[in-house]
Amino acid sequence: MNWQATPQRLDPLGGVTAQYFTWSVALVAVIVACVQSVRHAGDIHSAALEGLALLCIVAAAAVVMDGSSPRRFPFGRMRHASVHLLALMAIVLDRASRSTGEGQSAAWGAVCLAILLMTIGSYRPAPEIVLFSLASSLAVAAVAVAFSGDLTAGQTAVFAIDRAAPIAAVGLGAAAFSRTLVNRLTVWQQGSDERAAITRETIRAELLAEVSRDRQELIEHRVGPFLQELLDRGTVTPADVARARGLATSLRRTMLAEARRSWLDDLADTVEDPDHLAERMTPEQRTAFGGLISELRAVAQPLPGSMLVTLGSTGAAATARLTARFGATHSRLRDSAYVAVLRTCFRHASVTVEPSGIAVELEFDAGV
Amino acid sequence: MSWVYPVSEAMRTTRLGVVAAFVWAGGGLVVAGGAAALVLGLERSTVPWLALVGFGLALASLLVAQRFQSAGVLSPLAFLTTVVACWMVAAGVTSAGIPFDGFVGFPLFTVGVAAALVGSIADRWGGAAGTVLGYVAGQGAIMIALAPNVSPLDAIDPAAAAVALIVAVFIALLGVARRRARAASERLDDSRSHNLAATELQSLRLRSRALVHDTVLGELAALGMARPGPLPSSMSTSIRSSLAAVAANAEPLDDVLAPTAAFTDLLARFRAVGLRIAVTGDPAAVDGLPPERREPLLAAIEQCLVNVLQHSGVTQAELSIARTEGQVTATVVDEGDGFDETTVPEDRFGVRESIRGRIADLGGSVRILSGRGQGTSVIVSVPDRGVPQ
After folding, report:
1. Do B236 and A211 touch (CB under 8 A)?
2. Is the same domain home to B210 and B267?
3. For A291, which of B5, B169, B188 is closest by C-beta distance?
4. Which of A18, A262, A342, B83 can pair with A278 through a Cys bridge, CB separation 3.0 to 4.6 Å?
5. In terms of DSSP H, where are the helices of chain B?
6. Cβ A248–B39 below 8 Å, yes or no?
7. Is residue B66 domain-shared with residue B209, that is, in the same domain?
8. Widest CA span of chain B, in angstroms?
9. What does pLDDT average to over chain A?
């Protein structure tokens, strides 16, 4: 079992969907912080510290929102840790801005961190979520105890549980969400691979006749009659020797032209790929790139002949650059889902959409 | 690997993930609520048994609701049990003499949230309505239990209401949000099918070109170097065989000879034209391969021997077969002129397609050790099991 797998990496389109919820909960967290701050302004004795606390929670929300963008895929461990650290800073600053004891009940930091963690299960692996949220819970409990003032031991304990439990509970929930999705996605993908193998066999059987026919056509036009005539005659003349050389050269040229043909030739208007790097892309990379080009053709309707793909390499890294120009009346291209998928399967992927056209830069392993 | 996850499957998976999240989050809160209630009771030297049983019932309800989501009567029963649990917790803390203040709010909040979550899980028509119903029923039960001492308005927990509202909106928007990705999903699915077909076509064409190269192109090359005069019978037989091979309407190399016969036949053909081949190692390892691996390996060995015959300048080669864990390796060695693979013209398909292409198709590997004047060693390895790509 892969404990580092994340739903976002296994299902990038699901990660795009989660973006809407992530933005929503981040906004809710900020609103809760602001409302609580204003409602209980009377408890605050240091406006500067409270202001800093609000800034920290806004920063944590911004980190979450930014990380959920397809252009930032995947949501990394450091970003996850940053959310916890910023929220913990907000919790400490908010607590420090209020009087100790019962004045702490209006503190909003722990609730806001719990809200921010609600959608983290879409982006990070379960063990990491559990570890980070339990660590934050303990830290929050410690802060609650430190600022308990004149509360009784029992009240302090309840106060610490009250503040720490929502973070731990939401963390456990997010981890369960992450684990459930990873398990089901992994099982589905295994089934998908088996289904692809069956589909491949079916396609292969269908294409076999086409390939055999192409091969026979290649031979029967000139080479077949020449060899048959030679067999019938039973002798080799100097003219036959010269013709055999000529036919061999011609056959090689034809085969070379076919061998040079790339899968991208069917999709783009012009493909410049002298080193045949397009063939080094993995099936997933081809699917993602091909899907984006299909979307471009269907939705953005680039100017005829304007779609150019150029491939080159530097050492072990290969790059593919796609450019296309749009006409005056192109529809709006919804590229976010494709950006997410491209960033999942390429080393680096950037998509720049402008009114006049699009530029896509992809980096992948050139192999040896 | 594929990541074009069907929308219907994604919806179901997300729903299951959300339910699992509710159970763990709700369960965690209920346990924490029970602990808080116990601490508050112990401060007054009493154990709030009724409340603790209520927390236990709430926890059990969450588990039952998850386990029997689609069962007819059990999920509504879990829902009702949670409502009863809410009443028991509120009545339990009251009967234990715990005052209704900011501290008791947390245990009541946790059980109120549990009611909303069980309502969401038990709702088979989406979850949003069940969440709201769960919250309302849970809060109602708490109000009734607190009624003699606490006014209904004071008993309403805004935090639990906020959680229920967020959950309800989250559930309601789940389907809508995922459907927005449907267009991309369909386009990517089409692209995957197209790519699968293109890859298979390319693979078949590569093998077809290798067949043409090894047969007809070889005949033309031999004729291009032949002396004028009567056509030798061996050449005549070879041309007929080549024409028959390219005309066959079958997958190249599917026309399989018996294993031993194929290997012996291969060696005999080269020995007949003057190439001396010393065979070492474990030739039976080739026979042990399944046909879809054996034939490409034999074809690659054949091309290596063709290269020795045509380009090395020597008439002797060594063919070594070895079986190691998980793979069979054939090594063809000659002490001829050698070559630099990077300088081989692009229209020479022998090494690139007849050897490398075929073996790569099987997930195997090819290593060529050669240099001008240093002889050539070609090491071809194929896995002895697994599905060829």
Report:
1. no
2. no
3. B188
4. A262
5. 7-43, 49-67, 74-95, 105-122, 128-146, 152-155, 158-180, 182-212, 218-224, 233-247, 259-272, 284-287, 291-307, 358-361
6. no
7. no
8. 121
9. 87
Nearest to B29 among A169, A235, A237 (CB): A169
Residue B280 pairs in a beta bridge with B320
Query: B319 - beta bridge partners?
Result: B279, B332
| Mean pLDDT score, B28-50 | 92
Structure tokens at B5: 């996850």
- Last residue of one domain, picked from the residues B152, B180, B208: B180
* pTM strictly above 0.80: no
**CB neighbour list of residue A344: distance below 8 Å, 6 or more residues apart:** A8, A9, A12, A73, A74, A288, B3
Indicate yes or no: CB of A192 within 8 angstroms of CB of B2: yes
Expressed as residue numbers, the domain containing B263 is: 256-389
The CA distance from A22 to A118, in Å, is: 8
Check A284 against B2: CB less than 8 A apart: yes
pLDDT, average across residues B245-272: 62
Residues B138 and B222 reside in one and the same domain: no
pLDDT band at A80 (very low <50, low <70, confident <90, very high): very high
Contacts of A287 in chain B (CB under 8 A): 2, 4, 188, 191-192, 195
Question: Do B298 and B225 share a structural domain?
Answer: no
Q: Compute the nearest-CA separation of B365 from chain A (Å).
A: 12
A55 to chain B nearest CA, in Å?
23
The pLDDT of residue B128 is 82
Give contacts of A244 with chain B, Cβ < 8 Å.
220-221, 223-224, 226
Q: What is the pLDDT of residues B145-171, one digit of tens each?
A: 988 778 877 777 777 788 888 888 888
Are residues B340 and B322 part of one domain?
yes
Q: Identify the CATH number of the domain in which residue B298 sits.
A: 3.30.565.10
Task: Return the CATH number of A263-365, one of 3.30.565.10, 3.10.129.10, 3.90.1150.10, 3.20.20.150.
Answer: 3.30.565.10
Q: Do A241 and B228 touch (CB under 8 A)?
A: yes
Pairs of residues, one from chain A and one from chain B, whose beta carbons lie less than 8 Å apart: 307
| Complex prediction ipTM | 0.80
Domain count, chain B: 3
Q: Chain A residue with minimal CA distance to B166?
A: A25
CB B105: neighbour CB atoms within 10 A? 18
